[in-house]
């Protein structure tokens, strides 16, 4: 049996509804007494949270977006994620590099080779063990967003942009099928919750103590 996933990322277009499910995963793992780091990107450190504020609210081109998110990611990895993994914590991260490939790469049409180079420099081969991709049609996500909050800079993009972002996630999932699990986020909240907790139970809790 494979080892338990310890670095878990959560992805999807804005409005897919991932945030409340991350809290439910955290509750499940805390009940099982797993030491946890609950964090997000862009963000997760004081420096990266400052970069997040700039990223979400200042106009900029796609290369600047990519450089800012990878700068934030570098700080986040080196000061929080890598030390947490080394101490045996399970890391739950709301978005990671798949978001950069989906939003800046597929959404903005930015050069994937440049993103791949930045990924190599910044991550040095480190990837999540498990990525839960909350997949939902962009029209459904847009309706959920408009009911929930005022849009930030990326959330103001049109449905075609989110069609491309969704396709970007699909391409990443197809390129790494053992890491990705697609969650049908168009279902009811309860059905999505049940799917998410089942995957986490199988890929994290049931594999604890398995030989490496
Ligand atoms: P959040 O609202 O889920 O926290 O995500 C913040 C926004 O930043 C969301 O619109 C996705 C976007 N984003 C990127 O464009 N590239 C990235 O690399 C990351 C991590 C997020």
From TrEMBL:
InterPro entries registered for this protein in UniProt: P-loop_NTPase, Thymidylate_kin-like_dom, Thymidylate_kinase
Record bears the keyword Transferase: yes
EC number: 2.7.4.9
Family annotation (Gene3D superfamilies): P-loop containing nucleotide triphosphate hydrolases (3.40.50.300)
A GO MF term: dTMP kinase activity
The entry's keywords: ATP-binding, Kinase, Nucleotide biosynthesis, Nucleotide-binding, Transferase
Residue ranges annotated for the Thymidylate kinase-like domain, each copy included: 10-195
SUPFAM superfamilies found in the cross-reference section: P-loop containing nucleoside triphosphate hydrolases
Catalytic activity: dTMP + ATP = dTDP + ADP
Residues involved in ATP binding: 12-19
Function: Phosphorylation of dTMP to form dTDP in both de novo and salvage pathways of dTTP synthesis.
PANTHER family per the UniProt record, alphabetical: THYMIDYLATE KINASE (PTHR10344), UMP-CMP KINASE 2, MITOCHONDRIAL (PTHR10344:SF4)
Similarity-based family: Belongs to the thymidylate kinase family.
The protein, known as: Thymidylate kinase
Organism in which the protein naturally occurs: Ideonella margarita
Taxonomic path: Bacteria, Pseudomonadati, Pseudomonadota, Betaproteobacteria, Burkholderiales
